[in-house]
């Protein structure tokens, strides 16, 4: 095993260049619209944060290796080399000022998928040893301990006890033959244990057969954030092994947006084979239960609520109508942010930005875009469905002294469930009159 | 005596009804792309207009422009308004001759200093050329032009020779012929080009001048936009054939008989700006393309030297289907080869690639 080095980084960049990348770089018209779509550029005004500039190392490698003009330039000694110093200079651009939110890919008039290329550029950054310390540490912990925060099953076991005590229900663990395997993120376990409580109650209410796995409970993917397919594949593999061991047909991703992208979209390509199960976000599962008439709610929230769409859920995965249908179930005064759904603005913390201490000021700067959106509709509370987004919203709103609490949609649904007798439900009976 | 009559009186004396006069005004307004609300104003202005003094200078020309104006219509409104100006000097049309003719010119210049219009047809041997190539009453064309325009209100260059040099100026230009606008730079100039120009373009410019007291809007070649704003091609009735790719390939083939597009026979319609396609000629009887002949581009600068009249403006390379397919196949093969090489290169790099291990990462902490 050799050290991470510039040579390895350049080799990784060369290996990442495929037909789409070549087409994208060839078709860039340098219009700069991507800058206008990036919260990091817009809120700092620093032109270095123009998304296409963040791809300069990858672009130089493409030009030098895959274009005739680039080869001639290199032959004449006029080529622009990618040096170690350059990669060091680009590290904050590729990591600190990009949450992989993908808004630039949406607005690019020639259809260049910039976030796809940022993801690829990160492969080279990791290989050359230019990844932020916070993300390196998270990746190491994820591989070594199973959790990027170093969390172990015993911590989750404590939370399970709390949940069981407060609900009077059993949290199923390692139950073979269950329909759903629920994956969690460390952040949900530590900061938002009410999430686990909420799904315990909702699934009990709807008669869903589900389970947790002691073999693997964490499905966030530091490998995706740092941009290493080796790390990412290893982490996905663990989920696949655990799900296969229990024989589940469906896996529920953690609320965390990047976990969903990793396990839902990148996963099969990372491990090189199809899954023996299907992957859903909890919002998709809840909306399916709602459509099937398995969710019975009573009462509605009376205050003015608005919603933050996580980038990975809405923009990248097209889950947009589901959370709104669920909101209608429990909210009387719901108002959408002006730009929402596919064109929503990132909270500023995704893509590894929140695990990277150095990026703290940028993370807060990018949040100002979200803050302005929130100020425009003046909600009394914000609703979201991603632990990272939620933490960022809470911290950001507090920073700007805005008294707007942030709640999770799943928890809000759980609060409005119709109480029913404690008896074990038969799937057919619960659509009848509840007591 | 005529100079004191207004145009309205003149027209009535000629037996033109008020209705006919208003129709002329409406036609002028629409031709000049003026709003209909201006028709009464045109009528009012023309009715009250005193006939302006016009001095017509003919230099190196063929009299075709004058022929076009005087013979193409037996008395029409255009003819009448043309008579309604006070044409004080015109070689071909004036009754006086010899010294009396030149005296008429000098008299008109004196009486209307600063207000008369100068119409020029024909090109002029430039100041550096031998003045003997073209003289009138012993004076060179250049001297007469400079003398006459000195106190003119405006100059109207009629015909391509006056506007751009025309045939006399065609290579090798033995007489050193020049266009009016190359010699006169301190007067408003309107070029009404064409070989010959459309009569209505001349009367339209005159009507505009009489109505508004200024010259109409011009294009980059100082031609009135109302007549030279659109290409022959864009207004050609054979345009649908061009759009369908139906071309006459010779003057007596099936395409020519079917009236298909004459582009490949050298039609300069796409590069020529004039009103032939809408105004047509000889009282709107026909026009060159309708008669089956390509446009020569006579209203454009240097049209004599702009390649052969029967050479198409530009033609796609005439390659046969096999060559085209061959070139396509060669291109595809080249592209596929390049793609294959790039893919092999990438695959090689991917195989060479070392996976990132947690141990390697740990060393970075």
Automatic annotation (TrEMBL), chain A:
S-adenosyl-L-methionine listed as a keyword: no
A Pfam family per the record: Fer4_8
Domain of life where this protein originates: Bacteria
InterPro entries per UniProt: 4Fe4S_Fe-S-bd (IPR017896), 4Fe4S_Fe_S_CS (IPR017900), Cys_rich_dom (IPR004017), Helical_ferredxn (IPR009051)
Domain 4Fe-4S ferredoxin-type: 19-48, 90-120
Keywords: 4Fe-4S, Electron transport, Iron, Iron-sulfur, Metal-binding, Transport
Protein's UniProt name: (Fe-S)-binding protein
Classification of source organism: Bacteria, Pseudomonadati, Pseudomonadota, Gammaproteobacteria, Chromatiales
Automatic annotation (TrEMBL), chain B:
Signal peptide range in chain numbering: none
Cofactor(s) the protein needs: [3Fe-4S] cluster; [4Fe-4S] cluster
Class of the enzyme per the UniProt entry, highest EC level: oxidoreductase
Catalytic activity entry: H2 + A = AH2
Keyword field: 3Fe-4S, 4Fe-4S, Iron, Iron-sulfur, Metal-binding, Oxidoreductase, Signal
Localization of this protein: Cell envelope
Residue ranges constituting the Cytochrome-c3 hydrogenase C-terminal domain according to the UniProt record: 228-307
Ranges of residues in domain NADH:ubiquinone oxidoreductase-like 20kDa subunit: 62-208
Disordered: annotated span: 346-365
UniProt cross-references to InterPro entries, sorted A to Z: Cytochrome-c3_hydrogenase_C, NADH_UbQ_OxRdtase-like_20kDa, NiFe-Hase_small_C_sf, NiFe_Hase_small_N_sf, NiFe_hydrogenase_ssu, TAT_signal, TAT_signal_bac_arc
Keyword tRNA-binding listed: no
Enzyme Commission no: 1.12.99.6
Family: Belongs to the [NiFe]/[NiFeSe] hydrogenase small subunit family.
Complex and partners: Heterodimer of a large and a small subunit.
Protein name: hydrogenase (acceptor)
């Amino acid at each position: 095993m050799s050290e991470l080095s510039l040579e390895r980084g350049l080799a990784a960049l060369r290996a990442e260049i495929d037909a789409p990348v070549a087409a994208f770089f060839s078709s860039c018209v340098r219009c700069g619209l991507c800058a206008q779509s990036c919260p990091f550029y817009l809120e700092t005004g620093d032109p270095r944060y123009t998304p296409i500039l963040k791809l300069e190392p990858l672009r130089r490698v493409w030009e030098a290796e895959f274009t005739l003009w680039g080869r001639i330039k290199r032959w004449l000694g006029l080529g622009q080399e990618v040096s170690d110093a350059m990669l060091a200079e680009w590290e904050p651009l590729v990591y600190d000022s990009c949450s992989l939110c993908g808004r630039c890919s949406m607005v690019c008039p020639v259809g260049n998928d910039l976030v796809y290329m940022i993801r690829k550029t990160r492969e080279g950054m990791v290989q050359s040893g230019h990844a932020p310390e916070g993300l390196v540490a998270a990746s190491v912990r994820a591989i070594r301990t199973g959790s990027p925060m170093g969390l172990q099953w015993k911590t989750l076991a404590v939370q399970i006890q709390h949940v069981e005590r407060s609900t009077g229900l059993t949290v199923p663990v390692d139950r073979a033959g269950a329909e759903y395997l629920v994956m969690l993120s460390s952040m949900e376990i530590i900061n938002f244990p009410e999430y686990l409580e909420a799904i315990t109650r909702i699934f009990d209410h709807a008669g869903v057969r589900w389970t947790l796995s002691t073999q693997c409970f964490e499905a966030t993917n530091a490998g995706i954030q740092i941009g290493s397919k080796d790390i990412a594949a290893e982490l996905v593999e663990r989920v696949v092994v655990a799900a296969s061991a229990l024989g589940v047909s469906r896996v529920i991703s953690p609320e965390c947006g990047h976990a969903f992208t990793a396990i839902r979209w990148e996963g099969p390509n990372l491990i090189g084979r199809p899954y023996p199960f299907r992957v859903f976000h909890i919002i998709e599962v809840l909306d399916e239960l709602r459509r099937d008439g398995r969710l019975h709610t009573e009462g509605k929230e009376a205050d003015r609520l608005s919603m933050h769409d996580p980038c990975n859920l809405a923009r990248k995965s097209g889950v947009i109508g589901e959370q709104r249908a669920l909101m209608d179930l429990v909210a009387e005064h719901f108002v959408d942010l002006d730009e929402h759904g596919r064109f929503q603005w990132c909270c500023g913390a995704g893509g590894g930005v929140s695990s990277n201490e150095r990026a703290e000021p940028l993370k807060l700067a990018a949040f100002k875009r979200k803050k302005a959106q929130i100020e425009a509709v003046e909600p009394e509370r914000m609703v979201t469905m991603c632990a990272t987004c939620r933490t960022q919203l809470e911290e950001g709103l507090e920073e700007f002294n805005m008294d707007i609490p942030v709640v999770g949609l799943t928890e809000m649904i759980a609060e409005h469930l119709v109480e029913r007798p404690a008896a074990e439900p038969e799937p057919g009976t619960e659509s009848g009159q509840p007591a | 005596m005529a100079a004191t009559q207004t145009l309205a009186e003149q027209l009535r004396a000629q037996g033109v009804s008020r209705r006919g006069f208003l129709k002329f005004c409406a036609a002028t307004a629409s031709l000049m792309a003026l709003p209909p609300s201006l028709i009464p104003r045109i009528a009012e202005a023309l009715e009250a207009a005193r006939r302006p003094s016009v001095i017509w200078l003919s230099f190196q020309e063929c009299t075709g422009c004058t022929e076009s104006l005087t013979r193409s219509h037996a008395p029409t409104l255009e003819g009448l308004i043309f008579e309604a100006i006070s044409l004080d000097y015109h070689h071909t049309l004036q009754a006086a001759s010899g010294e009396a003719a030149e005296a008429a010119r000098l008299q008109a210049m004196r009486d209307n200093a600063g207000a008369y219009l100068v119409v020029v047809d024909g090109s002029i041997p430039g100041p550096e050329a031998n003045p003997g190539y073209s003289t009138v009453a012993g004076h060179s064309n250049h001297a007469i032009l400079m003398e006459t325009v000195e106190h003119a209100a405006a100059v109207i260059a009629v015909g391509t020779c006056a506007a751009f040099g025309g045939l006399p100026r065609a290579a090798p230009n033995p007489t050193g012929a020049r266009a009016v606008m190359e010699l006169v730079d301190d007067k408003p100039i309107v070029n009404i080009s064409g070989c010959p120009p459309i009569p209505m373009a001349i009367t339209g410019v005159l009507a505009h001048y009489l109505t508004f007291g200024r010259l109409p809007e011009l294009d980059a070649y100082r031609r009135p936009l109302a007549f030279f704003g659109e290409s022959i091609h864009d207004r050609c009735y054979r345009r649908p054939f061009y759009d369908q790719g139906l071309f006459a390939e010779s003057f007596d083939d099936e395409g020519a008989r079917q009236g298909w597009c004459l582009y490949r026979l050298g039609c300069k319609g796409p590069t020529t700006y004039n009103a032939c396609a809408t105004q047509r000629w000889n009282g709107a009887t026909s026009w060159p393309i309708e008669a089956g002949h390509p446009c020569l581009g006579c209203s454009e600068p240097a049209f004599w030297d702009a390649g052969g009249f029967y050479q198409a403006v530009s033609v796609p390379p005439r390659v046969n289907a096999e060559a085209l397919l061959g070139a396509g196949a060669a291109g595809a093969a080249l592209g596929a080869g390049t793609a294959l090489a790039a893919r092999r290169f990438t695959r090689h790099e991917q195989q060479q690639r070392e996976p990132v291990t947690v141990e390697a990462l740990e060393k970075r902490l």
